[in-house]
Amino acid sequence: MTIAAPIPAAGQAGPAPRRATVGVDVGGVTVGGGAAVVVQSMTNTDTADVDATVAQVAALHRAGSELVRITVDRDESAAAVPRIRERLERVGVFVPLIGDFHYIGHKLLADHPACAEALAKYRINPGNVGFKEKKDRQFGAIIETAIRYDKPVRIGVNWGSLDQELLTRLMDDNQANGFPMTADAVTREAIIQSALFSAELAEEIGLPRSKIILSAKVSRVQDLIAVYRDLAERSNHALHLGLTEAGMGTKGIVASSAAMGILLQQGIGDTIRISLTPEPGGDRTREVQVAQELLQTMGFRQFVPIVAACPGCGRTTSTVFQELAEKIQADLRKNMPVWKTKYPGVEELKVAVMGCIVNGPGESKHADIGISLPGTGETPAAPIYIDGKKAATLRGANIAAEFEAMVASYIEQRFGQARSEAAERIGA
């Protein structure tokens, strides 16, 4: 079996913009097909540890993860999956769980039917699903299980575990043609062909395209952009985006955002994960927050109210505005799980916390509610703007607490009223 699309020549122009993808239902969450980009995360607990995994899945979901992937690497973890699903539902967490399978996924799914049933999707890597003559057979066994249980599959290629037979063949072909492509370009082509070949094989076995999501992960920004542009041009599958092994802290955030921001702007990508390496003992939910902020700052989705705050300068030697902005942002994010149902539309709220008179009043007027705190040497007064108009001026030692109360009151009046009106219409 071969992929019809030719290897592009070196220096060839980039592909056309992404065409519409096929939609895939993952446990009630639609990926692709014109749906909003979905945020995904992954646990780093031992899945066999039911208590730890339930706690982390619940935390990721509360943070806003719409799909959560868990490792299923041995019998003990496979046996734990239905118990994890049951425990989560008992505490009201119905987030779809994705099983991450490598090497022996076919055996684990066959030996643990309750696991196969409890998962909303299977993720398999064609580079290590099996080797030599076992590869297609074991791949096929997983696809047949997915068909039996009506589950979608993500075929996730990773250049750290790429099919070496395919890569060797393409390298040999490239050499025979006089090296028209660089080694990196051939590697990217191998990644793409692995994904497309595997998807074609899955469809031949009987898994419909509406049950297939593709991913092609690398760890370098320019490679990720090149791979996904080509993959999007050569297929209409739903695509999962992620810069693998992105790294820790700001490096991982910047690299992931740079790569995925470009692709998302071109309409490429239907679900994303920010693969951050957490600090020792760090909060796993950070990757969810970054994914949400990427989509929100690009204007694709709204998850939490936006807090605009100035960076500070010599005019803002007081730290009051920084502390206030940090506290309000933390409170908004903390309250969102409840507010999403209590105050419909509250995620559209825009708050401004500014530190001096230069941009403070203007930025506050652009927000739904904003405060312009006094800068160094300015009159110790803080004007408040609501819906573009000056509504009050705060003075004294309790400015921060008073503004927080005004924000809470604004939310109740604006979004609580919206809920009451909606309830009245339903009752009518």
Observed structural traits:
single chain; 428 residues; alpha/beta; TIM Barrel; Sulfite Reductase Hemoprotein, domain 1; 2 domains; eight-stranded parallel beta barrel; five-stranded mixed β-sheet; 17% strand; elongated; disordered N terminus
Protein model, in words:
The strands form 4 sheets. Strands 3-4-5-6-7-8-9-11 form an 8-stranded parallel beta barrel, surrounded by 5 helices. Strand 14, helix 12 and strand 15 (369-372) form a beta-alpha-beta unit. The protein contains 13 helices and 17 strands. It folds into 2 domains: 24-298, Alpha-Beta Barrel (TIM Barrel); 306-427, Sulfite Reductase Hemoprotein, domain 1, CATH 3.30.413.10. By secondary structure, the chain is of the alpha/beta class.
